Amino acid sequence: MTRIIAGMAKGQRLKVPQVGTRPTSDRIREALFSTIDSWLSSQGRAWADSIFVDLFGGSGAIGLEAKSRGAHRVCIVESQPAAARLISENSSLSKCSVDILRQDAFRWNPDEFTTIVFADPPYADSDDAVTAMFDRLSSDPLLAGALIICERGKKSGSPWSIETTLRLERSWEKKYGDTVIWYGHVVGTE
């Protein structure tokens, strides 16, 4: 069972796709959002001022959690039609209004200053494709100052290349069983 952990929709159960996704566990989402809360506080920011993007949305649980906690705007990017419909249903169930963008998450570009980008690409996607995506995103001026987060399997390598790490003020990781969450704070662009 996947549910919203905190905020105005706390406890709301969410539907998950029957195939093709790997929902982030409640335990990992709790830790993830605790880290985001700490980061927002350290930056003098609040959820109410945050623009949150959830790439590879799946059920939408991560983006809906951000909206439930008070994010100003949430955009969930999902290319699969069935998953996008499910995100829309979950948005209605939870009464969390989010923007759903039907496109390939690897090709997403911000259209406004964005505070947090979370990406959970399928573990089967190549490390090279994921690294290339973060190289591109970390150099986008609309992500200067943003927290970028990537969820990957423990057998995957770092999603950051040398070019990416040069644009990150701090980069750290946390391991949870077979899952690793990578965090980086973008400090500037070329």
Structural account:
By secondary structure, this protein is an alpha/beta fold. The protein has a single domain, classed as Vaccinia Virus protein VP39 (Rossmann fold), CATH 3.40.50.150. Helix content is 29%, strand content 24%. The strands form two sheets. The protein has a seven-stranded mixed β-sheet with strand order 5-4-3-6-7-9-8. The radius of gyration is 15 Å and the shape is globular.
| CATH level-four homologous superfamily name | Vaccinia Virus protein VP39
The appropriate CATH architecture is: 3-Layer(aba) Sandwich
Question: Share of helix among residues?
Answer: 25-40%
**Could you report the average pLDDT, rounded to the nearest whole number?**
91
How are helices and strands ordered from N to C? EEHEHEHEEHEHEE
Number of strands: 9
Rg, Å, rounded:
15 Å
Instruction: Catalogue the unreliable spans.
Output: none
The fraction of residues assigned to DSSP E strands is 15-25%
- Counting helices, strands and paired strands, the structural category is alpha/beta
For the largest beta-sheet, the strand count, sense and barrel status come to: 7 strands, mixed
Look up the CATH topology: Rossmann fold
Choose one word for the global shape. globular
